[in-house]
Design goal:
This protein has 135 residues and is of the alpha+beta class. It is built from three helices and eight strands, in the order βαβββαβββαβ. Strands 1, 2, 3, 4, 5, 6, 7 and 8 form an eight-stranded mixed beta sheet that branches. It starts with a strand and ends with a strand.
Length: 135
């Protein structure tokens, strides 16, 4: 599994976990954005434009450009968004929630650099991020 690859995964949103759910409501595409030691950091892809949080805090996300949507097999007829303030963290040897470990495609190096740049800004601004460890 390599950085930038897109997989189908049973993603658990942080707002679902707050309601004591232990499994996501559906299989969705996720981007493997980081690998740190034995941990994989998976960020969800959605077709719904993220709305501000209840406290008015803007969400952190990127609209996926058409060429990148094509690279990973996303619908070309409407926008898709990579959410950057909600993630699932899984151990590389505990891949139970993956529909398949075969990637559906991979984002370009340039798009991955944009993701990394956004993270750096978020860290500098001390933006809140919701991360879940999945087991």
């Amino acid at each position: 599994m390599e950085r930038g690859e897109v997989y189908r995964f049973n993603y658990l949103w942080s707002h679902e976990a707050e309601k004591n759910r232990v499994s996501g409501s559906k299989i969705r595409r996720v981007c493997l954005a980081m690998k740190v030691n034995e941990w994989l950091y998976l960020f969800p892809i959605t077709s719904l434009e993220p709305q501000p949080q209840d406290d008015g805090e803007e969400r952190m996300y990127l609209e996926i450009p058409p060429i990148e949507r094509q690279r990973v097999g996303l619908n070309q007829d409407h926008p898709s968004y990579l959410i950057l303030d909600d993630y699932n963290r899984v151990r590389e040897d505990e891949l139970y929630d993956f529909e398949s470990t075969t990637p559906e495609g991979q984002f370009s190096v340039l798009f991955l650099q944009e993701i990394a740049r956004r993270f750096q800004v978020a860290i500098q601004e001390k933006r809140p991020m919701q991360g879940l460890i999945r087991r």
